[in-house]
Specification:
Largest sheet: 7 strands, parallel
Number of strands: 16
Bound molecules: alpha-D-glucopyranose
């Protein structure tokens, strides 16, 4: 329907799936005050490891349960931090001792995760941090916890990025050879320029070649600092105003967002978003052709925080009745004017249009324009499958005035769902 910029990976499932789970989990779940805690508080390896690495023991970790919660919320794929900027690895990497199997939990947390989520039918994504504040050869730059160290220059002379690069390539090779088919590689992130790091530091070109060789179908994000070598873009904590384009083609995109301000578990962060607003965000993404990757930061005991669980459950309640306006859907054809206070999505295979009513109007909804006039055959509420009458009497005609279109006669009060959706069957 739309001309999509094709990358190299297998994207068909991705543009249908629409809704995924992001998981940020690592040692930072112990301090529980943002996954950048090492950077913010300038914590050196010795202290971080002494306090947290030695005590990491998520005894309640049960990935089967995570998968069930996510599935019930309506998510179709899951991306997990195999390693975040702190450098700690959730899997049993042969290239480092800094891994879950060497903490009191003694478990390859990633392997269990992959198995549990695959079993529930999820596509699997690996987030891998290009940044590594623990590796002895990762040079100290503007984000590094030791950036203000008085002997920074001297320390950097002893560091050799070539060695880190080798480690990084080796780790990605492990991840893409030892865990079966991986559907997404989510590399994070580049910050080229003074005192930063970019494609030369990672040797991104060589890395991408290896990634594509090992898993040719894999979808790769756009954070390796390469102009054209990616499958999808990743607007963070925003929904773009319009479907992003490149050279006249629509780009595959996924907005990643948190419930509150932090990605990792943050006990005292209180700015949690309300469920209805998140449902509207998901709708907004789909109405512009994109996906939503919604993040949970599990606790140090290995559970989803109660605030996340509550919200996921409510999202699931909405999805149970409204999945057909989300999965397999995309931006509606331009000829359909967006009604007031609404968002449209469209399923091209079913040829149905979905009107998401963000603010419930009184009595009627105007669908203005020729496209509606000629093509709308039948209308119903998604949540209960009840008919919405298309008004044709004098009173309705009067509401339309000089304009052409159709008028929907609405129930006097908003249906008992977060965001009501009207399904329009088109000719
Ligand atoms: C940022 C942050 C990071 C988070 C990521 C998710 O780049 O560094 O903490 O993992 O965004 O998109």
């Amino acid at each position: 329907m739309y001309e999509i910029r094709k990358g190299k990976g297998d994207y068909e499932w991705f543009i249908r799936a629409k809704f995924g789970l992001f998981i940020h989990w690592g040692l930072y779940s112990l301090p529980a005050r943002h996954e950048w805690v090492r950077n913010r508080e300038e914590i050196p390896n010795e202290i971080y490891d002494e306090k947290y690495f030695k005590r990491f023991n998520p005894d309640l970790y049960n990935p089967e349960e995570w998968a069930k919660i996510a599935k019930k919320a309506g998510m179709k794929y899951a991306v997990i931090t195999t390693k975040h900027h702190e450098g700690f690895c959730l899997w049993d990497s042969k290239l480092t001792d800094y891994k879950a199997t060497n903490t009191p939990c003694k478990r390859d947390l990633l392997r269990d995760f992959v198995e549990a989520f695959r079993k529930e039918g999820f596509k699997i994504g690996f987030y891998y941090s290009l940044i590594d504040w623990h590796h002895p050869h990762f040079t100290i730059d503007r984000f590094h916890p030791l950036r203000n160290h008085p002997e920074k220059e001297k320390l950097n002379k002893e560091r050799d990025m070539a060695k880190y690069r080798e480690y990084l390539h080796g780790q990605i090779r492990e991840l893409l050879t030892e865990y079966g088919k991986i559907d997404i590689l989510w590399a994070d992130f580049s910050y080229p320029g003074p005192d930063g790091k970019g494609k030369n530091d990672w040797n991104s070109e060589k890395l991408v070649k290896m990634i594509r060789e090992l898993q040719p179908h894999i979808l790769l994000n756009n954070r390796l600092d390469l102009e054209d070598e990616y499958d999808f873009v990743t607007p963070e904590q925003v929904v773009p105003n319009e479907w992003p384009e490149k050279d006249g083609k629509k780009i595959i995109w996924e907005s990643c967002q948190t419930f509150s301000g932090s990605w990792g578990y943050h006990r005292d962060e209180a700015t949690w978003r309300d469920t209805e607003e998140i449902i509207k965000t998901l709708i907004d993404c789909v109405s512009k052709g994109g996906n939503l990757l919604l993040n949970v930061g599990p606790t140090a005991r290995g559970e989803f925080d109660y605030r996340a669980r509550e919200r996921l459950e409510k999202i699931g309640e909405w999805m149970k009745y409204h999945f057909s306006s989300i999965y397999d859907c995309t931006k509606a054809p331009e000829e359909f004017k967006i009604p007031e206070n609404c968002k449209l999505t469209y399923n091209p295979e079913k040829n149905r249009l979905y009107v998401h009513i963000l603010s419930w109007p009184y009595k009627f909804l105007v669908l203005e324009g020729k496209a509606y006039k000629e093509q709308v055959e039948y209308a119903q509420l998604l949540n209960d499958g009840s008919e919405i009458k298309i008004g044709t009497d004098e009173w309705h005609k009067k509401q339309l005035g000089e304009k052409e279109g159709k008028i929907l006669t609405l129930p006097p009060f908003k249906p008992n769902v977060a965001v009501p959706v009207i399904e329009l069957f088109l000719k």
